[in-house]
Design goal:
It is a single chain. By secondary structure, the chain is α+β, with helices and mostly antiparallel strands. Among the domains are: about 90 residues, no CATH class; about 130 residues, Jelly Rolls, CATH 2.60.120; about 45 residues, no CATH class. It is about 35% helix and about 15% strand. It has 19 helices and 19 strands. A five-stranded antiparallel β-sheet has the order 8-17-15-19-13. About 15% of the residues have low confidence. This is Cyclic nucleotide-binding domain-containing protein. One of its GO terms (molecular function) is cAMP binding.
């Protein structure tokens, strides 16, 4: 059942009441099997039923014998178009252009249900409590736009915050109004050593040429450490327009700034359904939701940076939808590093994923194997290492307080009983720590900045949550 509507698909089957009863009486079918075949859900809103030559298929005559009330919801398959036309029954044709649309009635709470579903799928609202969701339902308003309609224009005073329920819109940027588009610029002006100590690693160091490489790492290790490298040779640039879809929110930038002037035209690309909050409702939402303003301000700045183009330049990340891009941008942070900075270290666990926006990176141990260094759009993420660190920490929590841990993570599977450890309960308990110990997987390569580089980094916990939400 979907949206209160039902549909049934027969697959290959034989439906003929008289024929089925005859097969039952001759002992070929049990009473239960016969009853099951006779009890096909013909009353469903949509029925896709095969037609062919009995007894392994259903004859057209059997389908024509069905009541008219059933035939109006019936489409037949596995039959030639000419024969279907001769019978007078409708053929379920292949192709998007032949999509069967079932109209669903409008329900009193349909919009509220859609908004709640939206909250669940939107990164900044996902952790709202029931009371917060209730507040949002009371202060928001629903509005619709036709393709080509302007939601807002450059230079207007921003009065509303929008979240897309359905449809798509184009955001046409006016970069002349976006002061400080380059979030990395201020970092470039700071002392590189202070940045490294603050953001990357307190023990990070610059390396000098030449560097001794270790040949034991093969090119196969790339598969677990880097995905979707880009072949573009130029640094990524800020795109002039972006497409937003369901789950994305718009208009927050103007409401978060003092002058509240819109810096982009927003135009409906398709029929567009939005919920909107006026400035007062928006401020109420920020004031009553701890941390929401910080997350919105950070995402607003990231959106104005080159992150869109960096994501779009990556062969893997470019395939995600606009809502998933926003989820990713919401957990991105910026960093600028000097040439020679070690970002990942061999034989150390990986704690962050990186997206390269400008400059060049390389793996020290594979310097001679790779023809060119990694350039803008390359994404580095060692999921195996990150997961091993997470699982190790969870195991330590289990060991520290197994009762509390079991209550906090009820879905975790129990530690299996190991026969060679002995069958005594006390012995199992005393050795439980060693049983649950998780091996941490370290990086097999050293990732280093070949030139000065602009990067976006994502903490391990954030990228793992993103992957869990977007399998």
């Amino acid at each position: 059942m979907v949206a209160g509507k039902t549909f049934a698909y027969s697959a290959d089957t034989y439906y003929d009441p008289k024929g089925l009863v005859d097969l039952r009486d001759k002992g070929y079918l049990s009473n239960e099997r016969c009853d099951a075949l006779l009890d096909f859900p013909w009353d469903y809103d949509l029925v896709l039923h095969e037609a062919g030559i009995p007894p392994i298929h259903t004859s057209v005559d059997s389908l024509l014998a069905l009541p008219e009330s059933v035939q109006k919801n019936l489409y037949i398959i596995h039959i030639a178009e000419g024969k279907a036309k001769e019978s007078g029954l409708r053929l379920a044709k292949a192709g998007v252009e032949n999509t069967i649309i079932i109209e669903t009635p409008s329900h009193e709470h349909a919009t509220s249900a859609a908004i709640l579903q939206l909250l669940r799928s939107t990164a900044i609202f996902r952790h709202f409590s029931i009371s917060q969701a209730s507040d949002l339902l009371q202060i928001c308003r629903h509005c619709s736009y036709k393709p080509g309609d302007y939601i807002c224009r450059v230079g207007e005073v921003g009065k509303h915050f929008f979240v897309i329920l359905s449809g798509f819109c184009e955001v046409k940027l006016d970069n002349s109004r976006n002061d400080g588009n380059d979030l990395h610029e201020s970092l470039r002006k700071e002392d590189a050593r202070n940045i490294v100590q603050k953001v990357l690693d307190p023990k990070a160091e610059e390396i000098s040429e030449p560097v001794e490489t270790e040949r034991s790492t093969s090119s196969s290790s790339l598969k677990s450490t880097m995905s979707g490298s880009s072949s573009c040779s130029a640094e990524v640039e800020q795109p002039q327009s972006k497409i937003f879809g369901p789950g994305d929110y718009l208009g927050e930038q103007a409401l978060l700034t003092e002058n509240k002037i819109r810096s982009a035209d927003i135009v409906a690309s398709t029929t567009l359904s939005l919920i909107k909050l006026d400035n007062n409702a928006f401020r109420y939402l920020l004031d009553t939701t701890p941390g929401l303003q910080y997350r919105m301000e950070r995402l607003s700045k990231i959106r104005l940076s080159t992150s869109w183009k960096a994501i779009g330049s990556n062969s893997v990340l470019s395939q995600v939808g606009s809502s998933q891009r926003s989820q990713l941008q919401a957990v991105m942070q910026v960093v600028h590093v000097k040439a020679g900075t070690k970002i990942w270290r061999r034989n150390r666990p990986v704690e962050r994923a990186y997206l390269l926006a400008g400059g060049q990176l390389e793996f020290l141990e594979m310097r001679d194997e790779l023809e060119t260094p990694f350039k803008a759009g390359s994404f580095f993420c060692n999921v195996a290492s990150m997961m091993s660190v997470k699982q190790s920490k969870e195991a330590q929590m289990d060991d520290a307080d197994p009762v509390t841990s079991a209550r906090s993570r009820p879905s975790s599977p129990p530690v299996p009983h190991l026969p060679h450890a002995g069958s005594g309960l006390n012995r199992d308990a005393s050795r439980g720590r060693s049983f649950r110990k998780k091996r941490i997987i370290n990086s097999r390569v050293t990732l280093v900045a070949k030139t000065d580089a602009d990067l976006y980094y994502i903490e391990a916990s954030d990228i793992l949550e993103f992957l869990d939400l977007n399998p």
